[in-house]
Design a protein that fits this description.
- The chain has one domain.
- The protein is built from 9 helices and no strands.
- Helix 4 packs across helix 9, helix 5 crosses helix 8 and helix 5 packs antiparallel against helix 9.
- The chain is flat and about 45 Å long.
- Keywords: Membrane, Transmembrane, Transmembrane helix.
- This is VTT domain-containing protein.
- Pfam families: VTT_dom (PF09335).
Length: 168
């Protein structure tokens, strides 16, 4: 009986996933879907926006610059949300205590200031970096500007490389 319940759960989950994916299908919604995927992928949730950007551009190569701009905007706004989450989480993080590596990372980030947010394009550490910048109360707009530059350069570089590797 437990196995039947598990199978029903898996079938329901698959049906939900299929419905969500068909709702967000790139050919139908295009740039709005790309924006949403880029935004969510910049939060602390594990999602990559590069496959969505690449897929959209394979279907619509004429959208190269608009797609890069939309992905950059969505990803930057997601990073800005991370900044605000970090800003609001300051009191919670203070309760964790301060390990040696934690203190060194904070000192490094304080020394670099908002320029450290340029590295927000890096996998694994980029999104938490934005949250820590907010937690440290680094200036919001300079951090957002550095995020924008880093994320834009990442999207241009990765998209050109992927389109070069898979031209057809």
């Amino acid at each position: 009986m437990a196995r039947l319940g598990r199978c029903l759960y898996c079938a329901a989950m698959q049906a939900w996933l299929d419905a969500a994916l068909s709702l967000l299908a790139l050919p139908r919604y295009g740039l709005s879907t790309l924006f949403l995927v880029a935004f969510v992928s910049a939060t602390l949730l594990p999602l990559g926006s590069e496959p969505a950007l690449f897929g959209l551009l394979k279907l619509n190569p004429e959208l190269f610059w608009p797609a890069v701009a939309v992905a950059t905007a969505g990803n930057t706004l997601g990073g800005m949300l991370d900044w605000w989450l970090g800003y609001g989480a300051h009191r919670v993080v203070d309760r964790w205590g301060h390990s040696r590596s934690h203190v060194k990372a904070i000192e490094w980030l304080e020394r670099l200031g908002p320029k450290a947010c340029f590295l927000s394009f890096l996998p694994v550490v980029g999104d938490p970096l934005c949250a820590v910048a907010g937690w440290l109360k680094l200036p919001f707009w300079p951090c957002a500007a550095w995020m924008l530059v880093g994320k834009f350069l990442r999207y241009v570089t990765m998209t050109v490389a992927l389109l070069h590797l898979w031209p057809n």
